[in-house]
Design brief:
By secondary structure, the protein is mainly beta. Among the domains are: 177 residues, no CATH class; 135 residues, no CATH class. The chain has 5 helices and 74 strands. The strands form 6 sheets. It has a 29-stranded mixed β-sheet that branches. It is rod-shaped, with a radius of gyration of 60 Å. Keywords: Secreted. One of its GO terms (cellular component) is extracellular region. Its main location: secreted. This is Haemolysin-type calcium binding-related domain-containing protein.
Length: 863
C-alpha cells in the first residue's frame, strides 16, 4: 500500500527532471570527464597540494581546460613505483564553472572498475547514483545494481530509491520503491511504491512523474497532498482502493482509476474522475465546490461526502457533476451522526441522486430526475424536484416536498409535513404510523408491524396495509384498499371502491353498488371475513359473512361457503347459496332463502318469508321428506311464512310437516306432487297445499287452508278459518268448537263437508245468507259458510255428511231450506225448537219426515 504525502507551492509542470532518468548518459558523461581530467594529470598540468600513499590533493594548471580545479582522491599505492594507484573515492571541483564530480568504488586501471556511487553536476543540475556497477576496460558494463538515483534541478531535488539492475548495454530495469521530491520548504514523499523503472523512462517534468506514479499504483494507496502552487496538478491513480486528497486553491485533476477510491480535491474548480469502482468524493467546505468543478463518478456506485463543520452552508452541486449516485452529509469517512446543519442543492445535476443528511437540520434539494433524499435525524426540509423521487424524513419533524413526478414519501419517525401540488404526479406515502393522506396525494402504504390505520382523501387512492390489524378508509373517489395480513377493516367510502383484505379476519364496509370485495386466500389462510353493506351485495369467493346496514330494503346473497347473512331494519332478501348458512333477517319484512345445505334461518321482527328445501329421508316404504333447514322465529315478531321448495317423488306415504311455534304460514305450492300433510299451530295460520292429496290441519287460530290441486282434506280446527279446496275432490272437516269457518269452493269436483263425530242431521241448521249457504250447528255458535253457493254450481259442495253418516246432496239443499221455512209457517214452531224436541207429536212427525226426505243414508257414526 503506497503512501504519498507532502505540500508545495511549486508549479511542477515547469520543473524538468528528465535528465534524472537518463542514467547511461550521466554515467558516460562522468567517465568522459574523468578521462579528460586523467589526461591533464598525465600531461603534468597540476601541482600537488598534499600527498600520502593513501590520498592526494592536486590543483590543475594551464594549459588544462580545467585549470583552477581541485581533485582530492583517496585510495592506495599513490606514488608507488611501477604500479598504478588504486582510487576508492575522489572529488573534483571546479570553482570557475561550478562543475562537480564525485566518485566512490574502485578504479585501478588494470581490471574491471567498480562504481559504488558517482555524482556529476553543474550549477543548474546535479546527478548522483548509488549502487554498484562493474565496468570492464572497454567501458562495457559487466554487472550493475543501483539503489538510489538523485537529481538536483535548481532548487528541486528528486530522489528515487529501489532495486535497479543495469544490463551490458546499460539499460535499467527493476522496481522503484520510494521517491522523494524537495524544493525549498516543499517536500513530497512517495513511500511503499512498487513501480517498474521502465515506466519512468519518458518522464520530463515532475507533473508527469505524478501522473506516471499514479497510474502505476495498484494497491490500496493513500495520497495526501497540498498544492498551493499557482497551477493545478493532476494525479490519476491506478487499480486499488485509493485515498487521494489534493488540497489547495487551484483546480486539480484527481483520478481514482479502478477500485473503491476516496477523492478530495480541496478548494478550486477541480476535475475529479472516479473511474471504475464505488468511489467517494469528499467536499470539506461548500466554497470548495465551484460552478466550474467537474466530478465524474464513472462506473460503480459513487458518492459525494459533504464534510463541512460550518453550520448553515449549502453545497450547490455544479452541472459538471455526472455519474454520481449519492450525496452524504457527514464526515469524510461518510459517518452521518454529526449535528451540523448543512444543506445540499443538486438541482443542476443531470442524473438522479441519493442525498443523505446528517443529524442536523438539513435542506436537501434533488435533481429533476429520480432521486432518493434521506433526512436522517433533525428537522429537515427535503425538496425532490422533478422526477420520481423517494423522500425519507427520518427522525425529527420534517417537511417533504416531492415536486413534479411520481414521488414516494417515507414517514413515521416524527410529525412531518408533506407538500404536493395538484397534478404533480401519482404520489405514494409509506408510513409506519397512522396517517391520513393530505391534498393531492394518491396512494398510501402502511409499513412496519404495528396495528396502525390509513385514510385517503377525495382522489382515487390506493391504500395498502401492513401485516398487522389495520383500519383503511378510502374517503371519496374510486379507491383500492389492500389489507394484507392482520384482521383489517376496509372502508372504501364514497365511490366505487375495490377492497382486498388478504390474510386475517377482515371486515369490509360497502356503500356503493360499484364496490368490489376480493379475498384471494381460501380456507384458514384467508381468515373469516365480514362484509357490512349498505347496498345490495353478493359475497364473492372466500368471503364468509355479510351484514346489511342502514334502513333501506336490501338484498344479500351468499356463496358456496358456510355463510352468516344478517339483514338490517329494512325488508331484506337473504339468499345463502351453497353451504351450511345462517340467515338472520332482523327487523323488516324479510325473505330468507338458505339455498343448498342445512341452513339456519332466523327471521326476527317483521313479516318474514322462509324459503326451505325439502329433502328425502330414508328409502323404500320408509322414505319420507324433511326440511333441510332449521327455522327460528321469536314470539310476536310478525306474520311469517315458510315456503317449501323441491320435489321428492316416489314416496309411498305422505309426510306431515308442522309449523313451528311463532310461524304463521306454510306454503307447499312449489313442491309439485310431493306427498305432504301440513299442520299449523296455535296461531292464525295459512296452509297451502300442492298437487298431491294433502291433509291440511289448522289447529287453533283463525286459519286459512288452501288445498290447491289434489283431493285434499282440510281441517280448520278451532278458530274462524277459511278453507279453500282448490282443484280436486276435497273434504272440509268441521266439528263442534271449530268456530265460524268459511269454505271457498270453486270447482265442480266431488267435494264434501264432513261434520265431526256426534253430529246428526238434526244438529245442522241450513240457511241462505245472501249468495252464501250457512251450515250452523244447533246449540252452538259454530257454523260453516260456503261462499257464493248461490252464484253457481261450481261454488257448491257436492255432499254434506254428518258424523252419523247421513248425506245431504247439493241438489237437495235448497229444497231442505224451503221445507224448513214452510215447516215454521205451517206449525208456528221454529225449526230449532223442533230440533230440540218441542212441539206436538204431529209436529215432530212432520219434522222427522222433512229430514228423512232430504238426508239419505244412515249407519254407524262416521270419523
Amino acid at each position: 500500500m503506497a503512501l504519498i504525502t507532502g505540500s508545495t507551492t511549486t508549479d511542477w509542470s515547469t520543473v524538468n527532471v528528465g535528465a534524472l532518468f537518463d542514467v547511461e548518459t550521466q554515467f558516460n558523461t562522468f567517465f568522459s570527464r574523468f578521462e579528460q581530467i586523467s589526461a591533464d594529470i598525465a600531461a603534468g598540468y597540476f601541482i600537488v597540494n598534499s600527498a600520502t600513499s593513501t590520498s592526494v590533493s592536486i590543483t590543475l594548471l594551464p594549459p588544462s581546460a580545467n585549470a583552477g580545479a581541485t581533485l582530492v582522491a583517496k585510495g592506495s599505492q599513490f606514488f608507488g613505483r611501477n604500479v598504478d594507484p588504486i582510487i576508492n573515492s575522489f572529488v573534483f571541483n571546479n570553482p570557475s564553472t561550478g562543475e562537480l564530480l564525485r566518485f566512490s568504488g574502485t578504479l585501478d586501471g588494470v581490471g574491471n572498475e567498480v562504481v559504488k556511487s558517482f555524482t556529476i553536476g553543474v550549477p543548474s543540475f546535479q546527478f548522483t547514483m548509488l549502487g554498484q556497477i562493474v565496468v570492464n576496460q572497454a567501458g562495457g558494463v559487466v554487472s550493475g545494481r543501483i539503489t538510489e538515483l538523485r537529481g538536483t534541478f535548481g532548487s528541486t531535488t528528486v530522489t528515487i530509491r529501489g532495486t535497479l539492475v543495469a544490463d551490458v548495454d546499460f539499460n535499467l530495469s527493476g522496481t522503484v520503491t520510494q521517491i522523494a521530491i524537495m524544493s525549498g520548504t516543499d517536500t513530497i514523499m512517495m513511500r511503499s511504491l512498487s513501480i517498474p523503472y521502465s515506466a519512468l523512462s519518458t518522464i520530463t517534468t515532475v507533473s508527469e512523474l505524478f501522473s506516471v506514479v499514479g497510474a502505476q499504483m495498484t494497491g490500496n494507496d493513500t495520497i495526501i497532498y497540498t498544492n498551493n502552487s499557482a497551477a493545478g496538478m493532476s494525479f490519476l491513480s491506478g487499480p486499488g482502493n485509493d485515498v487521494i486528497t489534493i488540497g489547495g486553491p487551484n483546480g486539480d485533476t484527481l483520478g481514482g482509476g479502478s477500485g473503491d477510491d476516496v477523492l478530495d480535491g480541496g478548494a478550486g474548480d477541480d476535475a475529479i474522475l472516479g473511474g471504475d469502482g464505488n468511489d467517494a468524493v469528499v467536499i470539506r467546505n461548500a466554497a470548495d465546490h465551484g460552478s466550474g468543478e467537474v466530478i465524474a463518478g464513472g462506473a460503480g456506485d459513487d458518492t459525494i461526502r459533504f464534510a463541512s463543520v460550518v453550520p448553515g452552508q449549502t453545497l450547490v452541486l455544479a452541472s459538471g457533476v455526472t455519474e454520481i449516485e449519492s450525496v452524504v452529509i457527514g464526515t469524510a469517512a461518510g459517518v452521518t451522526t454529526g449535528k451540523t446543519a448543512l444543506n445540499v442543492d443538486a438541482s443542476a445535476v443531470s442524473n438522479g441522486l441519493s442525498i443523505t443528511g446528517n443529524a442536523g437540520d438539513n435542506v436537501l434539494t434533488g435533481t429533476d430526475l429520480d432521486d432518493v433524499l434521506v433526512g436522517n435525524a433533525g428537522h429537515d426540509t427535503l425538496n425532490g424536484g422533478a422526477g420520481r423521487d423517494r423522500l425519507i424524513g427520518g427522525p425529527g419533524n420534517d417537511t417533504l416536498s416531492g415536486g413534479p413526478g411520481d414521488d414516494t414519501y417515507v414517514i413515521g419517525q416524527g410529525t412531518d409535513v408533506l407538500v404536493e401540488e395538484p397534478g404533480a404526479g401519482t404520489d405514494l406515502v409509506e408510513s409506519s404510523i397512522t396517517h391520513a393522506l393530505g391534498p393531492n396525494f394518491e396512494n398510501l402504504t402502511l409499513t412496519g408491524t404495528k396495528p396502525i390505520n390509513g385514510t385517503g382523501n377525495e382522489l382515487n387512492n390506493v391504500i395498502i396495509g401492513n401485516g398487522a390489524a389495520n383500519v383503511l378508509e378510502g374517503g371519496a373517489g374510486n379507491d383500492t384498499l389492500i389489507g394484507n395480513g392482520g384482521n383489517d377493516r376496509l372502508d372504501g367510502g364514497v365511490g366505487d371502491d375495490a377492497m382486498e383484505g388478504g390474510a386475517g379476519n377482515d371486515t369490509y364496509i360497502v356503500d356503493s353498488l360499484g364496490d368490489t370485495v376480493t379475498e384471494s386466500l381460501a380456507g384458514a389462510a384467508g381468515g373469516i371475513d365480514l362484509v357490512l353493506s349498505a347496498v345490495d351485495f353478493t359475497l364473492g369467493p372466500n368471503v364468509e359473512h355479510l351484514t346489511l346496514t342502514g334502513t333501506a330494503d336490501l338484498a344479500g346473497t351468499g356463496n358456496e361457503l358456510n355463510n352468516i347473512l344478517i339483514g338490517n331494519s329494512g325488508n331484506n332478501v337473504l339468499e345463502g347459496g351453497a353451504g351450511t348458512d345462517t340467515l338472520s333477517g332482523g327487523a323488516g319484512d324479510d325473505t330468507l332463502d338458505g339455498g343448498a345445505g342445512r341452513d339456519r334461518l332466523i327471521g326476527g321482527a317483521g313479516d318474514d318469508t322462509y324459503l326451505v328445501d325439502l329433502v328425502r329421508a330414508g328409502e323404500g316404504v320408509a322414505a319420507t321428506v324433511k326440511l333441510e333447514d332449521t327455522i327460528t322465529e321469536g314470539r310476536n315478531q310478525g306474520t311469517d311464512q315458510v315456503i317449501l321448495r323441491g320435489i321428492v317423488s316416489d314416496l309411498m306415504r305422505a309426510t306431515t310437516l308442522t309449523l313451528g311455534a311463532n310461524l304463521e304460514r306454510l306454503d307447499a305450492g312449489s313442491t309439485a306432487d310431493t306427498k305432504l300433510n301440513l299442520t299449523g299451530n296455535a296461531l292464525d295460520n295459512e296452509l297451502i297445499g300442492n298437487g298431491a292429496d294433502n291433509l291440511l290441519i289448522g289447529l287453533a287460530g283463525n286459519d286459512r287452508l288452501d288445498g290447491r290441486v289434489g283431493n285434499d282434506v282440510l281441517i280448520g280446527g278451532q278458530g274462524n278459518d277459511v278453507l279453500i279446496g282448490g282443484a280436486g275432490s276435497d273434504t272440509y272437516v268441521f266439528g263442534r268448537g271449530d268456530g265460524q269457518d268459511v269454505i271457498q269452493d270453486t270447482d265442480g269436483a266431488a267435494d264434501k263437508v264432513l261434520f265431526g263425530r256426534g253430529t246428526a242431521p238434526v244438529d245442522v241448521i241450513l240457511s241462505r245468507q245472501a249468495d252464501d249457504l250457512r251450515l250452523a250447528l244447533r246449540r252452538t255458535s259454530d257454523q260453516v259458510t260456503i261462499r257464493d253457493w248461490y252464484v253457481g254450481a261450481a261454488n257448491q259442495v257436492e255432499t254434506i255428511e254428518t258424523g252419523t253418516r247421513h248425506l245431504l246432496l247439493h241438489t237437495q239443499v235448497e229444497s231442505l231450506i224451503q221445507a224448513m221455512v214452510q215447516f215454521t209457517t205451517d206449525t208456528g214452531l221454529s225449526w230449532e225448537a223442533a230440533a230440540a224436541g218441542a212441539g206436538t207429536g204431529g209436529q215432530q212427525a212432520q219434522f222427522q219426515a222433512i229430514l228423512a226426505a232430504h238426508w239419505t243414508g244412515a249407519g254407524s257414526e262416521g270419523a
